[in-house]
Amino acid sequence: MEKRIHHGIKVISAGPLLTIQDAGRYGYMAYGIGESGVMDRRAYQIANRLVGNDHGEAVLEATLMGPGLEFLEDTVIAITGADMEPTLDDSKVGLYEAIPVKKGQVLHMGFAKTGCRSYIAVAGGIDVPQVFGSRSTNLKCHMGGLHGGPVKNGDLLPTKKLSFFKKIKISRGGSKVTPTMYTNRVRVRVIPGPQDDCFSDQGLQSFYSGEYKVSPQSDRMGIRLEGNEVESKQGTDIISDGIVFGSIQITSSGKPIILMADHQTTGGYAKIGTVVTEDLPLLAQVRPGDQVQFEKIEIASWERQQDVEKTAVYAGVRKRA
After folding, report:
1. pTM, full prediction
2. Quick check: 139 and 19 in contact, CB under 8 A?
3. 185-306: which CATH architecture?
4. How far is CA 311 from CA 76, 250, 305, in A?
5. I want to staple 53 with a disulfide (CB 3.0 to 4.6 A). Which of 49, 57, 116, 118 is the partner?
6. Cα(303)–Cα(93) distance, rounded to whole angstroms?
């Protein structure tokens, strides 16, 4: 007999792709199990913080179009990432802010006005079983989430029960963060290698000076790009080696693929570079037809830049104190 859920969320309409995701599944790549997790880690972290969740709690990730959700108890939600023009009982609600919700209220989200992926966090987090230490849905392995795949119409999503004191703490809502603005043109920083020596000088120059268009064949596994072919010296086939979130493979056709959250664990195409972690949220929000450019950055200069930014943040904290 199926367990009845008296607290949580009822999915009225799931949209084209709605999944349960968290910070990711780590430590199993040697066994062929990728990280998965959210595509836009920045939007995810902010959403959880706004509703008072601990780091790593599961949220809903909507792609291109948002869901219709009925809340089965009083709670607080936050919506970050793409602007899908959300409404609560037909009244418009804001992005990047804590929103008190009453039992029985319905959230509706439409097509993304800007960006590609939206994140819906609920106080306590989505309470599905952990698989290898994560609640994230791995679409390729049919693992995690509610039933190993996308959330469907009619699904009931359990949420963690909140303590009395936590309910009091978050019941007022009102916390806000300045929304992230998305455009149809992004420039991301790339650390060369590990197989950039497979490409000719002309190929490297073409890669870093060109402007690429996001292909409709892009998904959570990788962003396929259309544009300048990247010339290799003797082809791009290599003995398969490790892949990370942000690796840029050049296929035999000379076209780049940026590997994203559901990337495979190993790959047999040469990797011209790796997108720096801080710029991956920009790529998570591109959609078909958007433009992508690459900027080469060396590790030494990148480390110096990070040190400068950390010093500035520390100085700002001391000044405010």
Report:
1. 0.90
2. yes
3. Beta Barrel (2.40)
4. 35, 37, 10
5. 57
6. 40
